[in-house]
TrEMBL record:
InterPro entries: Auxin_biosynth/cation_transpt, FAD/NAD-bd_sf, Flavin_mOase-like. It comes from Colocasia esculenta (Wild taro). Pfam families: FMO-like. The keyword Oxidoreductase applies. This is Flavin-containing monooxygenase.
């Protein structure tokens, strides 16, 4: 409890305490205080409702569902905007991979005028409209660097490092400690980029960029580009490079399921969901693979071997998502995109592959994905796996942990999975929120400055 005494001692110097003591406990005032923290010592603030970490689609969905139930929440975001993954880390030609009806957030459909696969700009416009509609006001430039449940107090203590400035130019500032009863982890499956350890990487002479820094192919015009990784992003970036007259080579290390984005006039995703409803997963897989073969041909002939398990069974068992082809396969067939096996090592002007073949390249794009950052800041050890940063319990049970801890958007089922989590979490918190007056709280909690 020493820290609480320390907190008490600091109150006289504390801008939060100052704003609280004036009776001004609005979210806006707390935001102002968070900004003020940049120049002051550490500060403490009480969050009356749930604290949501991350203002991506998942965090926004939970905030909106809570709002619908009359439960106020606070959203903290490390970046300077909502949906920072979509705003700052995606390529220009990106569209939703799945039809819009599978990517809606709760309580607000996409406008009917939007196409089946909205562009990234349309998706962002939808999210902006969403936060306006539900009056969600995240506190930006607040990176959570630790969160721990205090068993003595029965409360979560969440520490942030306030940041100033635009992405990439952040300046570290004084930390703020938020104290709350419910903590919602919404930092996403894609919080940090994954850079593989490839032998000889430092020897390669040309630029090496992760897909998070790739916008469009104009900088690669006329160049030989090695694209490492054949998920949806790697495949689509190859197509983009072709459109900018670059010469991409795709590294395909493992077996992969490539399916057409549409089959029999409907989306492959929608068709898969429908088949899964009525048929055993293996039968559904056989049908999907048959239809795929009729549309795309034998992908193994072009260097894209299929895994032993079918696409749906593989998804259920390992979370690995099939690639939905948007035109890259035709470029592979025509030879505009070359396919190579795993890299053995990189050399000054190129790469040597495991089949001993060596080729020259001007640049490398790493389409090697992302990972969760939860283990780096959540001192929990129970609910989230230290290794993967994902909930230990499989879908659909991973949304709820112990002591008021929740996880949204860790289902490997995109925005559809996040929306399902968000509704469950809001419903659960609502019960506790309505019963909160009967729960005894430590005196210090009610004495801390409050938000919202
Ligand atoms: C290229 C690409 C295309 C995709 N296309 C689709 C699609 O078509 N359909 C679909 O359903 N899904 C798609 N996805 C998956 C997509 O990531 C998710 O569906 C969606 O963005 C997940 O939202 P989220 O809020 O869970 O995570 P994110 O969008 O990653 O948001 C998490 C937020 O948390 C913030 N954050 C992280 N750590 C901290 C911290 N310590 N403190 C404070 N804030 C923090 C981040 O800055 C970020 O803003 C795609 C993903 C990628 C990369």
């Amino acid at each position: 409890m020493d820290c609480w005494r320390e907190a008490e001692g600091k109150r006289v110097h504390d801008p939060f305490y100052y704003c609280y003591s004036r009776g001004d406990s609005s979210c806006k005032a707390a935001k102002t205080a968070a900004t003020a923290a940049a120049g002051e010592g550490e500060m403490f603030v009480r969050v009356e409702g749930p604290l949501i970490v991350g203002a991506g689609p998942s965090g926004l969905a939970v905030a909106a569902c809570l709002k619908e139930k009359g439960v106020p929440s606070v959203v903290l975001e490390r970046s300077d905007c909502i949906a920072s993954l979509w705003q700052h880390k995606t390529y220009d030609r990106l569209r939703l991979h799945l039809p819009k009806q599978f990517c809606e957030l709760p309580h607000m459909p996409f406008p009917p005028s939007f196409p089946t696969y909205p562009t990234k700009q349309q998706f962002l416009a939808y999210l902006e409209a969403y936060v306006r509609h539900f009056d969600i006001n995240p506190v930006f430039n607040q990176a959570v660097d630790s969160a721990e449940y205090d068993h003595k107090l029965g409360l979560w203590r969440v520490r942030t490092t306030a940041q100033k400035g635009v992405q990439g130019k952040e300046k570290e500032a004084a930390p703020v400690e938020y104290v709350c009863r419910w903590l919602v982890v919404a930092t996403g499956e894609n919080a940090e980029i994954v850079i593989p350890d490839i032998e000889g990487m430092e020897e390669f002479n040309g630029p090496v960029v992760h897909t998070s820094a790739y916008r469009r192919g104009d900088a690669f015009r006329g160049k030989k580009v090695l694209v490492v990784g054949c998920g949806n992003s790697g495949m689509e970036i190859c197509l983009d490079l072709c459109n900018y007259d670059a010469h991409p080579t795709l590294v395909v290390r493992d077996a992969v399921h490539v399916l057409p984005r549409e089959m029999l006039g409907s989306s492959t995703f929608g068709l898969s969901m429908w088949l899964m409803k009525w048929l055993p997963v293996r039968t559904a897989d056989r049908l999907l693979l048959l239809l795929s073969r009729l549309t795309l041909g034998d992908t193994a002939r072009f260097g894209l071997e299929r895994p032993q398990l079918g696409p749906l069974e593989l998804k259920v068992l390992s979370g690995k998502t099939p690639v939905l082809d948007v035109g890259t396969l035709a470029k592979i067939k025509s030879g505009d995109v070359k396919v190579r096996p795993a890299i053995k090592r990189l050399i000054g002007h190129g790469a040597q592959f495991i089949n001993e073949r060596t080729e020259n390249f001007d640049a490398i794009v790493l389409a090697t994905g992302y990972k969760s950052n939860v283990p780096s800041w959540l001192k929990d050890g129970e609910h989230f796996s230290e290794k993967t940063g994902m909930p230990r319990r499989p879908f659909p049970y991973g949304w709820k942990g112990e002591h008021g801890l929740y996880a949204v958007g860790f289902t490997q089922r995109g925005i559809l999975g996040a929306s399902m989590d968000a509704k469950r979490i809001a419903h659960d918190i609502e019960q506790h929120w309505n019963a909160r007056d009967h729960v005894k709280q430590p005196a210090i909690f009610s004495r801390l400055p409050a938000m919202p």
